[in-house]
Structure formats: structure tokens, C-alpha cells
Write a structure and sequence with these properties.
With 502 residues, the protein is α+β, with helices and mostly antiparallel strands. It contains 14 helices and 18 strands. Keywords: Membrane, Transmembrane, Transmembrane helix.
Length: 502
């Protein structure tokens, strides 16, 4: 590997690592409780009963402790019961009110699932770009805004160029961590199946009537060969901050939505140059109708052709009313896929390798293999404050030190993994002391195809494209929420942190 390639290490460390042989306090308490009947039976010299209880309690402890595809068996059972309850009670099925004629206000959002908790008020005008749509997450108490980036991609860049972009991304995240208003950033990239609508409109405007017949024939053949599998990419960035961080400066700015927008605008202005330093040639903060278009085309990729035709016909940017931004119909999601408007989406959580990864290595998840397929990739970042970062690294260093000292006192040797974890804890503490920060992150990927295609075949292709480099965890029983995290530019996808980071 070239030394110019930036390697990100320590990416797979758990936020809440277990203290007792890798177990959380709840798991350890349950295991101790399950061991008590066995110990009592042995104390009473009832060895047959102790053997039977040992088998039963050992099985129960295995179900509590051993993870299966990222979740212990008992947690799987709880999630399955919740999934079946929502299915039986009809909570999972959804249909647009506009289709049934019940929509009374076209500017009122009508979105399913996790999106129902979001509100989209328009802020005051920002410079010469017009109004910016604010994203208010009433569930997590967050305010944010989304921008569309014009970016050429990183697939053809050299190692040195990727190194520079990696450093700039780190500087951007560090600058976010030093601001008190925002703490989260989401980068979303999704492919756009190109049906040729834009190209046909361009050809109609620039057609040369007297072009030679041979040239026309060659152009048509190229259209059939290249145009059928051509794709474009959409890049979005969403920045958000908590209500607690915004409340006081927003009150000083007048309060309400306008006050929160004014506080956010100050930060957005300061970050545009840093986003452009990452290779973006343009940063366009989205208004309400423009964000509604991004959500609409997320649910229904086929609607992009009609919107493009309207845009070419009118010569202006085409928007969508909020009442029609969601899907027309979304039946109850299956355990392994989410169906919406004649399309099916399979979502994954992407786990980083322990050895680290390089800048741009996630590009394989966006490699479309079949015409008409869409792939999406979202990276959700949260920068911790200096206080929370210092607290997290102290806790991690203390935990690794206690475990190492206890093993040494009992005569046990530390393994290579434990030594690497201890070294990483010390390195992180030194880095935070030098002014660096800690970034939480989550990566989600998805593939969307027409629901008449074989879903499992295309899901397997996505898994094969990244096999050996990253581990993909399919979002079983939560495909609708996974779709929002991986496909829609609303900044939803990183769970709330409770109890600090580690």
C-alpha cells in the first residue's frame, strides 16, 4: 500500500464496551442470576438437578450473550415481536392522503415511518440563494439543513490527492467539533439511473438538420450501447445541531424558526468554503420544494424523468409540494426489504475493518452492475465536544488498564488484540490532549430496484462488490428505517448517544 494513502484506524471500537469479560452490566447481571440456581443445587448435593439446570441456564445465557448477526438472540426475539405487532395492527402499512383525496393542505408533509416526526419549515432568505428549508427532528430535538453538492468524485484521483482530501475532511470535522451550534454532518451519495430524458432534451435543442446519415447512425448506436448503462451521481450534505445548543443563541436572534435559522445560517456560511475544499464546485442549500424533490426521487427514482422533462420545458427548477413528496403507497415492509411505489430497497449497515481503511474505499458500494439499479451510500458523522472526548478517552484508557493489570496480577498474559487496544487508547488520549477530537460515525448502504426484479440477486451483488473489505449487516426487521438512513438526505441515521462515548 502506498505511504501516501491515508489510513483510518480504530474505526470498529464499540461505544459501550463491556467491562466484565466483554459483557455489559445487564448481561453480566443476567448471567450471575442464571448461575445462582446451579450453585444452590450443587450446594445441596443435587447433582442431577444441577446438571439439568446447568444445561437450561447455560442455553439461556448463550441466548443473552452470543450475538447473531449483530444482535443477541433475545434481542432478535424482542424485535421480531415488535415487528409482528406492528404488522398485525396495521402500523406498518402506509398510503398517501393525497391519493385518497384526504389531503387538505398541500404544504403539510405526509411521510411514512421515521419521517413522520420531521417538520420542514422554511427559514428566511439566505443571501442571494433564497429561502432554505430547515429540517426539524421533533424526536431527537435537532435542527438542520441540506445542500446539494456538485462534485466530480474521487474515483480517478491519485493517492496524493486522496491524502489531501482526507486531511481536509478531518479539518472540516474538527472545525465542526469546535463549534457550539452544530455537531452532526451527513454525506449522502446516490446514483441516478439515467433514462436518457436529459440527453434527449439536449439533443433536441442542438440537433443539426443536415448532419450526415452515417454520423446519425453512429450516434444512435452509441446511445444504445452507452446510454443504457450510464449513471449520474447526486451528492448531498446535511448539517444539524441540537435544540439545546440552538436555544440560547436563537432566543438572542429573535426566537422561533427565524431565530434558529439565523444561527444556523452563520455556521453554513462558514462551512461552504470547507466543503468546496473537498472538491465540490458548487454548494446549493435546498429550499422546501427542492428538498421535497430529493425525497420524492428517493422513494420513486422513475419520477426523476418527469421532473427533468418539466425542468427542460419550463427552463426553471421544478419543485414538489410536501403532500406529494412521499410514496404513493408503501405496504408493510418485509423483514428483509422495503417496498415503495413499485420499487424495492435493501439496506445495510457497513462495519469498518479493525485494521482500518483508506479514503475512497467505499466507492465499490456505488458501482452499479445493472441498468435501472440505484445504489446509495450515506456516512453520518457526529463530532464530540472536547469535554466529552476527554471523558471518553479517559474511560477507555482506564478500562483497558484495569483489565490488563488484573490479568497480570492473576498470572495471565495479554493477547495481541488487547495490547493493540491498550496502545490505541493511549494514542487517542494523546491526540485529544493535543487538540484533536473524537468522531462517532455510522455508514449505511442500500440498493434499489423495481419490485418485479429478484431482490435477493441484486442484494447479493452489492454484498459481493465489497466482500473481503467491509462487513455488511442487513437491516433485518428495520428495512424502512434503514431506507431513510441510507437513501434520503434528511440527516437521520445515527442513534442518540447515551452515557457518553468510549
Amino acid at each position: 500500500m502506498s505511504t501516501a494513502t491515508r489510513i483510518y484506524k480504530g474505526l470498529s471500537r464499540k461505544e459501550h464496551a463491556g467491562w466484565i469479560i466483554g459483557l455489559t452490566p445487564v448481561q453480566a447481571f443476567v448471567c450471575v442470576g442464571l448461575a445462582v440456581p446451579v450453585i444452590l443445587a450443587l450446594a445441596a448435593k443435587q447433582f442431577g438437578q444441577a446438571l439439568l439446570l446447568g444445561a437450561l441456564c447455560g442455553t439461556a445465557a448463550t441466548l443473552v450473550v452470543v450475538p447473531v448477526r449483530g444482535r443477541p438472540a433475545l434481542r432478535w426475539l424482542g424485535h421480531l415481536l415488535l415487528y409482528r405487532a406492528g404488522f398485525a395492527l396495521g402500523w406498518s402499512r402506509w398510503q398517501s392522503r393525497a391519493v385518497t383525496g384526504q389531503a387538505t393542505d398541500l404544504d403539510e408533509p405526509d411521510l411514512p415511518g421515521v419521517l413522520a416526526r420531521l417538520r420542514f419549515p422554511d427559514g428566511p432568505p439566505l443571501r442571494d440563494v433564497g429561502r432554505v428549508c430547515l429540517i426539524h427532528d421533533t424526536g431527537d430535538g435537532r435542527w438542520g439543513a441540506t445542500a446539494r453538492l456538485t462534485h466530480a468524485g474521487v474515483g480517478m484521483l491519485s493517492d496524493a490527492q486522496c491524502e489531501r482530501l482526507a486531511n481536509r475532511l478531518g479539518n472540516l470535522l474538527l472545525s465542526i467539533g469546535h463549534r457550539e451550534v452544530i455537531d452532526r454532518m451527513t454525506l449522502l451519495v446516490r446514483t441516478v439511473p439515467d433514462d436518457g430524458a436529459d440527453y434527449q432534451a439536449w439533443r433536441a435543442e442542438h440537433d443539426v438538420p443536415h448532419a450526415p446519415a452515417l454520423v446519425r447512425q453512429a450516434a444512435e448506436e452509441l446511445d444504445k450501447l452507452v446510454g443504457a448503462v450510464s449513471v449520474r451521481h447526486e451528492v448531498f450534505v446535511t448539517l444539524s445541531g441540537t435544540e439545546d445548543a440552538l436555544r440560547r443563541p436563537a432566543a438572542a436572534a429573535g426566537g422561533g424558526v427565524a431565530g434558529r435559522a439565523a444561527v444556523l445560517y452563520r455556521v453554513l456560511d462558514g462551512l461552504e468554503d470547507k466543503l468546496k475544499s473537498l472538491g465540490a464546485t458548487a454548494v446549493k442549500w435546498l429550499s422546501g420544494p427542492e428538498l421535497a424533490v430529493a425525497i420524492r426521487t428517493g422513494f420513486n427514482p422513475a419520477s426523476a424523468a418527469g421532473l427533468a422533462a418539466r425542468r427542460h420545458r419550463t427552463g426553471t427548477e421544478v419543485g414538489v409540494r410536501w403532500a406529494t413528496a412521499g410514496p404513493v403507497h408503501a405496504p408493510a415492509p418485509s423483514a428483509r426489504a422495503y417496498y415503495h411505489d413499485g420499487f424495492a430497497t435493501v439496506s445495510y449497515s457497513v462495519l469498518m475493518p479493525e485494521a482500518g481503511t483508506v479514503f475512497g474505499s467505499l466507492g465499490g458500494l456505488l458501482a452499479v452492475r445493472t441498468a435501472g439499479e440505484r445504489r446509495s451510500l450515506a456516512i453520518h458523522y457526529e463530532t464530540l465536544s472536547q469535554h466529552r472526548s476527554r471523558k471518553a478517552v479517559r474511560r477507555l484508557r482506564f478500562r483497558t488498564g484495569v483489565v490488563r493489570d488484573w490479568k497480570s496480577s492473576k498470572g495471565f498474559n495479554s493477547g495481541a488484540a488487547e495490547a493493540r487496544e491498550a496502545g490505541g487508547a493511549r494514542a487517542q488520549e494523546h491526540a485529544v490532549a493535543a487538540g484533536h477530537g473524537i468522531v462517532r460515525f455510522a455508514v449505511a448502504a442500500a440498493v434499489t430496484i423495481p419490485d418485479t426484479w429478484n431482490v435477493e440477486d441484486h442484494a447479493a451483488k452489492l454484498e459481493n462488490d465489497i466482500a473481503g473489505r467491509f462487513q455488511l449487516l442487513r437491516m433485518e426487521l428495520a428495512q424502512d428505517a434503514g431506507f431513510v438512513a441510507a437513501v434520503l438526505p434528511v440527516g437521520v441515521g445515527l442513534p442518540r448517544l447515551r452515557g457518553g462515548a468510549s
